[in-house]
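input
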Amino acid sequence: LGAASFDRGVGLSHDTGAITHHIGPDIDAERDFLIGDLKAAGLLTSTSEIPGIGATRTGRNGGGDPYFTDGMAVIGVLKTLQ
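output
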């Protein structure tokens, strides 16, 4: 199980003022980048797309950064390395 987001910088949380990372808003692009890299490296035996949380156009993460998503999740099965 995993997730990916593009860290575009470090700064203060929009909500708490605590030091945190700031993500890029297009979280689907990072998902697709990760799956594409794993496929190109020959590390996946299969992939499938399933409905996730649903499309979100105006979401905010815990640090207050805006994000958007199509809401889909990609399941990638890793090859067993020997």
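quick obs: The helical segments are 27-40.
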